[in-house]
Amino acid sequence: MGSRIVSRRDLEFQLFEVLDVESLRERPRFAQHSRETMLAAVDTALAIAEEKFAPHNRKADEHEPTFHDGRVHLIPEVKEALAAYIAAGFLAAGEEFCRLSDARTMKARIFVSDRDLNDIRSGAPVRVKVLPYAFRTYTGHVEQILPAAATDAPISGTQKLTRLGQDLTNRFAVVMVFPNSDGSLSAGMTGVAKIAVKSRPLAWQMSRSAWHGPPLSSWSRPSWF
Questions:
Q1: The listed CATH number (3.40.50.10490, 1.10.260.40, 1.10.3720.10, 2.40.30.170) that belongs to domain 105-224
Q2: How many other CB atoms are found less than 10 A from the CB of residue 206?
């Protein structure tokens, strides 16, 4: 009898033909495995999914998790299913299983150069527009200004300044917060953001633009998280 929740034939095709999971055996961590042990893990996962998780899917949707008195409350069937999941070895002690987030507020960030940092302050008003709601503007504020990690690439494609092979510009991440009471904002959205900056004399703004390009109050592309 085939699986009630997934086509076993399609699953094996994706794993072994498309993703070539057997190539993982070339790495020391997976060297002791074979196609048979991989299929055994799939068999165990399917059995747990069908016997422990699938029967209460609808009930779990109708009775969503709640948080009160410092604890998350779920239907009892979820505890039993997770116990089987852990007992099968899919989750080791200390590993993160899930992360709760409050979608009533959303965060986004943009990357700015160090020469623009003096123009930004914590709490500065921010406006953002996202592609799914092109005619709507969300308002928020700057929450944090942090050094960008070395692996972070600036999302707004500003010109990279170098001298003798050395970068002349350091990047900083500006974290912005936006109310999201209606849930319309979600992770992965793309759009543009505009940060209100300090008021400067017109002559100063013109000279700054001539040397450094458009000011920070121009629209820049944020990333949501």
A1: 2.40.30.170
A2: 10
Q: Which of 180, 182, 83, 4 is nearest to 74 (CA)?
A: 83
Contacts with 3 (C-beta within 8 Å, 6 or more apart), sequence order: 46, 50
Q: How do the pLDDT tens digits run along the chain, 225 residues long?
A: 567 788 888 989 999 999 999 999 999 988 999 999 999 999 999 999 999 999 998 898 888 888 788 788 889 998 899 889 888 988 876 777 777 667 788 888 887 777 777 778 888 898 888 888 888 999 999 888 887 654 444 444 445 555 555 554 567 888 888 998 888 888 778 788 888 776 554 443 444 443 333 344 444 555 555
Which residues are CB-neighbours of 168 under 8 A, at least 6 positions away?
161, 162
- What does pTM read for this prediction? 0.46
Q: CA-to-CA distance for 104 and 101, rounded, in angstroms? A: 9
Number of residues written out for the chain? 225
Would you put residue 85 in left (φ > 0), alpha (ψ -120 to 50) or beta? alpha
According to CATH, where is 2.40.30.170 located in the chain?
Answer: 105-224
